[in-house]
Amino acid sequence: MSRTITRHDLADLARGAALLGTGGGGDPYVGRLLVERAMLTGSGTITLLDPGELGDDDLVIPVAQMGAPTVMVEKIPGGGEAVAALRALEERLGRRADATMPIECGGINSMMPLLVAARTGLPVVDADGMGRAFPELQMETFSVYGVPGSPLAIGGENGETVIIDTGADNARMEWLARGITIRMGGVAHIAEYAMSGADVKRTAVPNTLGLGLRIGRALREAREEHRDPVQALAAAMEGTLYDKVRVLFRGKVVDVERRTVAGFARGHARLAAFQGPGELELTFQNEHLVARADGRVRCVVPDLICVLDADSGEPITTEGLRYGQRAVVVGISTPALMRTPEALAVFGPRAFGLDIDFRPVEDLVSP
Amino acid sequence: MSRTITRHDLADLARGAALLGTGGGGDPYVGRLLVERAMLTGSGTITLLDPGELGDDDLVIPVAQMGAPTVMVEKIPGGGEAVAALRALEERLGRRADATMPIECGGINSMMPLLVAARTGLPVVDADGMGRAFPELQMETFSVYGVPGSPLAIGGENGETVIIDTGADNARMEWLARGITIRMGGVAHIAEYAMSGADVKRTAVPNTLGLGLRIGRALREAREEHRDPVQALAAAMEGTLYDKVRVLFRGKVVDVERRTVAGFARGHARLAAFQGPGELELTFQNEHLVARADGRVRCVVPDLICVLDADSGEPITTEGLRYGQRAVVVGISTPALMRTPEALAVFGPRAFGLDIDFRPVEDLVSP
């Protein structure tokens, strides 16, 4: 059933979305400020729709920011770009949207649909196409289960719009949209995967905004009550589609190598155990892709690899990784519809050029 | 009045267009083959319209290939891309074109509108927006005199389309379209500067396809009759908008430095006199921008700098420049509407980052 989001929910949602971003998806902090400001006018609330509430013929248009997280934290949106993308896509389709939706529930893209909702009055569907964050636009459950991303609309900071139509080829759509994103300075705002309510129910990962809110609240309360954040996280995940939580490593960040290249933030980070030998290496393309402890794979995409501040439990994004941080690295099982062979072909390890087969985190690490 | 182009005109037109391309615009050879093949079906002729024959409310949609000439000679179009761009723009505008037109009369873009005409039956307006070739899309008389290039449509080799709308900002349109061109492998096909017949008459350089045909025929006949190609060229230019022809240099190509960078072919070429001292340096970005003899400017953009084979009179494109070629370099005055202050602001030397003021070739070099 539908629920209402107020300004007071945003900090918790941003925290949970930063965790579900698995290091990427862009820091939700800036997005939260934009949504907070937009909510000062109008009703001051945003309606969250359960996917089951959608009519089969409703038109849902997801919106997002795309680009390198390293750029996203420096290039602040005006706030109207994603609305402009939505309107451009509506004009192309000759039909108004009945709701908007996240394409990914991790990072700043948990916030962009709320920003559009606050500015347009549209409801937001509580579901997404990644169940986390991924760096590329074809890496969506929508794509895996047959929804074309095209036509895609881009709204730029000067009021310019771009419409890209690559038919059913969502990887080509990503390639061309990334070219425009680079030309726009490394960040762009998009509307894509316009689909029917029936397709949302068939292809989306459900209730991931609600999950983000629940995770963020659990981490905050653990900190306020001086409880262990990982235990709180595991408790929050119980009964959800993400119910296996494993500690992969505890230690200090001793090295970060990060480059913004071809529109992505790519790199590695190394953590050393607090005491004694033992090392964890993280490899990322916007998001963490694989965690290797002493050379052995402990968790690999699309399972979630999340870095938390060891004391406060705050999620740390890849662009926020710094030498000397004390961290706990957690692996979380991804929902079953993201572990099918057709899903792994699109966003499993080999889709990122890694020479690794997917193995579930619960098989790699004991509780 | 309207005239007809047959397959037998194409070789002459290609030769003349290569000259008007001032080294760039892409080698018209490939374009000519595509048009020849397309003309084998249908009526076998293409109608060329004088701009004066257009109704003021007619819709004219120019088409072109964009990219680095170094790539254009290697990446052969299928032939339908420019038609797809035209159709995508018609759909966006909600109206069918009454005619197509070149955006530049130099190089392969003299041929692309003929290809579209042969495949669609549309007539081609005998006029263009550069009166030569330029490397960037805002460098058009259309733009100088107030016609927006947007919306621009791109047709790709896999049937994909992109629509870019930057309002009145034609330089931003170029920037974004170049990003897509790079992602498409260095070449794309576009439809842009859709305009009324009245705007064609007000802003286009008239009768430049006819001029290309005349130049190509003059150079061929001079070769067949063993006459001097430069004298034949000067005679062909008499009474046209391009009536000052000057020999800048005769010599051998001794050095070529050429890179394909950011979607353009950029570089320098040096020629040494056949006998004794004396050197000419050519600087190009797709097209030749400036010719300096012994350090002194002899001809500068937007005047035309054309390199011809010293013996055959065949124009040599920048990507065709080779060590050891024997060449004559000719400067040609550009039409008056391309030398106004507002035109020079868009495609004069400083628009290319050159620290030179424009001076007419007839003031720099005596006959």
Automatic annotation (TrEMBL), chains A, B:
- Which domain of life does the protein's organism represent? Bacteria
Coiled-coil region(s):
none
Tell me which residues make up the S-Me-THD-like C-terminal domain: 169-361
Among Pfam families, the record links this protein to:
S-Me-THD_C, S-Me-THD_N
The record places domain S-Me-THD N-terminal at 9-165
**Membrane-spanning ranges:** none
Report the leader peptide range: none
The protein's name: DUF917 domain-containing protein
Q: What is the lineage of its organism?
A: Bacteria, Bacillati, Actinomycetota, Actinomycetes, Streptosporangiales
